Amino acid sequence: MTERLNNAQPYAIGLFRIVVGLLFACHGAASLFGWFGGAMGGGTVETGSWPGWYAAVIQLVGGGLVMLGLGTRAAAFVASGSMAYAYFDVHQPEALWPLQNGGEASAMFCWAFLLLVFTGSGALGLDRLFARDTAAGAGVSGTGVSGAEGVRTPEAAR
Q: Using CA atoms, how far apart are residues 12 and 95, in angstroms rounded to an integer?
């Protein structure tokens, strides 16, 4: 059972990355374009306003990059930092615990993206596709590590 789960790990990480990135990008689209009911129950954030507009851009662009698995570690690092800022600057002054201050989403996104910084994109990401092309062009093979993301392949574990 453990070996089967280990073999599925890159795909589970890839699906996790896609869902988290999509949800994050939706938050940005809601704030910037008024989609999905808009920001905070309606409307959009004012262009250039701090920190709302910048957060929305990070959400849309960072979420899209993470969802596609393109520059995953860097995009996830920036997204995680933006959510840490959102939690400590916006939510935490209201109350200590996320359930009390409405910061559950910020806290969860922060930790989810931080996890992706360390795991990489997993399977199904463009990072792996481009890394294979780069590795093949450079004559690199048999390393047991898949691409720039450093995801160990099941073959490497054997």
A: 34
Over residues 106-129, the pLDDT tens digits come to: 999 999 999 999 999 999 899 888
pLDDT of 18-56, one tens digit each?
A: 999 999 999 999 999 888 887 777 788 888 888 889 999
CB 149 within 8 Å of CB 73? yes
Angle between helices 72-85 and 104-119 (to 10 degrees): 150
How far apart, in whole angstroms, are the C-alpha atoms of residue 134 and residue 124?
Answer: 17
Position 142, amino acid: G
Q: Are 103 and 111 in contact (CB under 8 A)?
A: no
Residue type, 86: A
**If we measure between CA atoms, which residue out of 83, 95, 94, 75 comes closest to residue 51?**
83
Give the tokens for residue 86: 């959102």
Mean residue pLDDT of the chain comes to 86
User: How many angstroms separate the CA atoms of 156 and 145, rounded?
Assistant: 7
Whether cis (ω within 30° of 0) applies to the bond prior to 51 is: yes
